[in-house]
Every structure is written in structure tokens, then in C-alpha cells.
């Protein structure tokens, strides 16, 4: 009797652990909503989106259901010899690369975002403003082949989009484009979540209704002439 009870107990303990563990595993592989941001560093609408809109995903519990993936290539072009030509010139190419290096150097999403947000806010003195002048890891990456490889990867991701992006910032939620309905971003993310975690309060109807007034962003079209 006693032994059968303890067998059951062991069985129960085993399977309870297994369940909790496999639950975590699934969460680890990410059942989160994939929010991809295709952008370029010097486009004003991208800066606005990164600084003012995306902050909500990192300052609230929305990050429990969302993975934000930055793809810093935007409207750049890839020439036949694999040279990247940026819409807003060399400076934009440089900052895109710096941000590609930030993404690879800081896998922690919050840290990654806070550096990218800072660089977008201080495009001229990012090194002193965001890294206290000590951006050694980032500069090492920038000056190595790694940054070029990363950029070609982002070029590939952007140029493989189906449907193609029309402007930046271009946002996809689980691969579906948001077009310019930026005020629907949070509700799209909330509605797309298929995982088991409880929905954050930002997904409640009152919270979503408050976003209806979000203003339009000044987007940069892919075929727009560069003014720099
Ligand atoms: C690559 O192509 C670009 C644009 O067509 C050109 O400006 C550049 O000189 C080329 N670079 C090399 C190394 O051929
Ligand atoms: C952006 O820069 C301004 C100064 O130009 C500063 O007042 C503001 O706090 C900065 N915001 C962020 C998010 O870094
Ligand atoms: C992206 O890379 C894949 C794999 O290397 C390649 O098959 C594909 O043609 C590339 N797509 C574009 C648009 O460059
Ligand atoms: C989003 O915006 C596009 C173009 O502005 C529009 O055609 C579409 O109906 C909007 N709504 C959704 C849910 O995509
Ligand atoms: C819904 O969201 C609003 C705004 O974030 C919050 O003040 C409120 O407490 C939330 N309500 C519920 C029931 O979670």
C-alpha cells in the first residue's frame, strides 16, 4: 500500500516536472508574436517609431508575448557587386551597421532596444551619449567583416519580403504587413498571440481603445529620391 502510494507520488512528481519543463521549452522556442521592424537609421518616421512607439513593448508586459526583431537595411539597395547603397547616404549605412553590431553584441532584447533607441536619438554623438565613449565592442564589430556579413543578411531578409516592403518603417506581425496602420499595432499583436501566457493588461479593450488616436508616421518610400 505504502509503496504503491509512493510510486504514484514519484509518477506524479515526474510528470508534473516534465510538464512544467516542456511548457518552458515551448515558451523558450518562442510562441511569442514575431514583430519585425524593417527600417533604416536616418529616416524620421523610423526614428519616431523606435523612440516613441516601440518603447511600449519594452516598458510594459507586452514583451511577455512579443519578440521584436530589428532589420536595419530599409530602402537601401544592393548592387551587383554586393555593395550596399543607402537611401540617406554613407552616414546612414554607417549607423545601420552600428545597429547591426548592437543587435549581435547584445542578445538581451531590452538592452538591444535601449542602445538602438539611444543611437536613433543621438545619431551624431551616439558613441559619447550612449556608450560613454566606450563602444569598443561595437567599433570592433563595425570594422570587421562581421558587420558586412550581418548587413548582407539583413539585405537578404528585406529583399525576400513577400509582399515587398513599400516604405519604412515597415512592420510585420507574424509575417503579415501592418502597412501604415500603426495605431493597430498593439491590437494586432494581442490578437495574434497563440501562446499560453496570460495576455498583458495592455491587451484589454480599454487600453486598446486609448490607442485609436495614434498619429500617422512620416514614412519614407522605397523609390523616394534621397535628399542628403
Ligand atoms: C560596386 O558597385 C557600385 C555601384 O554600382 C560602384 O559604385 C562601386 O565602385 C563598385 N565597387 C567595386 C569594388 O567594384
Ligand atoms: C533624446 O534626446 C533628447 C535631447 O536631444 C533628450 O532630452 C531625451 O531624453 C532623449 N530621449 C531618449 C529616449 O533618449
Ligand atoms: C537570400 O539567401 C538565400 C539563401 O542563401 C538565397 O537562396 C536567396 O536567393 C536570397 N534572397 C535574396 C532576395 O537575396
Ligand atoms: C491597413 O492599411 C492599408 C493601407 O493603408 C489598408 O488598405 C488596410 O485596409 C488597413 N487595415 C489592415 C487591417 O491592414
Ligand atoms: C486595462 O488597461 C488600462 C490601461 O492600461 C488599465 O488602467 C486597466 O487597469 C486595465 N484593466 C484591466 C481589467 O486589466
Automatic annotation (TrEMBL):
Pfam family name, one: GILT
Record carries keyword Glycoprotein: yes
Assigned keywords, A-Z: Glycoprotein, Signal
InterPro entries the UniProt entry points to: Interferon-induced_GILT
Origin: domain of life: Eukaryota
Homology family: Belongs to the GILT family.
PANTHER family: GAMMA INTERFERON RESPONSIVE LYSOSOMAL THIOL (GILT) REDUCTASE FAMILY PROTEIN-RELATED, GAMMA-INTERFERON INDUCIBLE LYSOSOMAL THIOL REDUCTASE GILT
Identification of the protein by name: Gamma-interferon-responsive lysosomal thiol protein
Amino acid at each position: 500500500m505504502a509503496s504503491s502510494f509512493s510510486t504514484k507520488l514519484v509518477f506524479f512528481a515526474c510528470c508534473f516536472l516534465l510538464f512544467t519543463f516542456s511548457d518552458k521549452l515551448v515558451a523558450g522556442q518562442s510562441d511569442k508574436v514575431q514583430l519585425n521592424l524593417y527600417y533604416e537609421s536616418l529616416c524620421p518616421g523610423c526614428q519616431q517609431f523606435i523612440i516613441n512607439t516601440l518603447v511600449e513593448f519594452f516598458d510594459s508586459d507586452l514583451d511577455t508575448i512579443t519578440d521584436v526583431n530589428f532589420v536595419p537595411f530599409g530602402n537601401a539597395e544592393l548592387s551587383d557587386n554586393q555593395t550596399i547603397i543607402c537611401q540617406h547616404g554613407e552616414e546612414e549605412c554607417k549607423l545601420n551597421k552600428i545597429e547591426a553590431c548592437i543587435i549581435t553584441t547584445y542578445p538581451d532584447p531590452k538592452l538591444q532596444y535601449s542602445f538602438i533607441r539611444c543611437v536613433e536619438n543621438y545619431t551624431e554623438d551616439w558613441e559619447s551619449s550612449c556608450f560613454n565613449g566606450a563602444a569598443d565592442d561595437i567599433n570592433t564589430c563595425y570594422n570587421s567583416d562581421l558587420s558586412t556579413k550581418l548587413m548582407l543578411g539583413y539585405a537578404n531578409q528585406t529583399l525576400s519580403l513577400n509582399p515587398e516592403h513599400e516604405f519604412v518603417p515597415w512592420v510585420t506581425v507574424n509575417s503579415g504587413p501592418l502597412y501604415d496602420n500603426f495605431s493597430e499595432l498593439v491590437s494586432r499583436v494581442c490578437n495574434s498571440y497563440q501562446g499560453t501566457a496570460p495576455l498583458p493588461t495592455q491587451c484589454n479593450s480599454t487600453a486598446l481603445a486609448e490607442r485609436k488616436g495614434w498619429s500617422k508616421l512620416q514614412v519614407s518610400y522605397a523609390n523616394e529620391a534621397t535628399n542628403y
